[in-house]
Amino acid sequence: MRRTVTIALGTAAALATAAVAFAVVPAVVGINPATATFSTATIEKSKTRSCAADTKTWEITRGHYTGSVVSGNSMLAGSLKIHAKTTYNTTDKLGYVDGSFRIKDDDSRFKGKFAGTIKDGKLVGFLTGKSHGNHAKVLGNLSADFAGGATNFTNGKIGAESSDAVLAIVAGPVCKSEKSGKSGKSGKSEKARRIEVKGEISAIGTSPTTVTVTGKDGSKTCAIDAGYPIPDGFPVGTKDVEMKCKAIGDSAVWTLRKLEKDS
Description:
Structural class: mainly beta
Shape: elongated
Order of helices and strands: EHEEEEEEEEEEEEE
Oligomer: single chain
Strand order of the largest sheet: 2-3-4-5-6-7-8-9
Mean pLDDT: 79
Number of domains: 2
Strand content: over 45%
Number of helices: 1
Largest sheet: 8 strands, antiparallel, barrel
């Protein structure tokens, strides 16, 4: 009968204070501490798209990263592959990441998943997985310097104390076209988000040309393109204006599509 050995690399509470990691030496039944450090040096494949609204900018990145893990425990040492999806608000420097974490070795292969929060380019999360060669589970805290986009994972730690406090976030969709998960169908990019505001023209900018309308719920600024220039007779200070704008595709820049007197 095959025995299963459990490795506990810390607990959720340990993430907030001192991280405690547990592991098992191959062929030994029991639980013992272990730690590891890791980093990636190469981004084999990466695709980032951005969206912006209400003065916030987000980057959604899907990337494949390669590097290495160093540990006194053979299950946590070897070449590393990370596949990750990162959602990061570059305005507030806040986001989250989840993906797969693989350590390949001839004698013991580790395959797991991780998820974590990001604040100011600092990742704090949790790792779970299995070491197939030793039939052992791995559970533990994970931290690194990472902010998605074109960045690698550096100064990574598994089962070791992180200097960053645990961060909890509540996250919803940030790019509506991401919801479908499909980008190849014709016409999808034209199903744009729309905004509408009624109030007074409070500013008209140049380079690039923009128009700002301030209403009871605040101000909205939209870019001007050749498809809909500002009509004559709408200077700054014009009241009772209705403005409608939309954002098409990945650029997600609000673009003016209607400006008229609110009847």
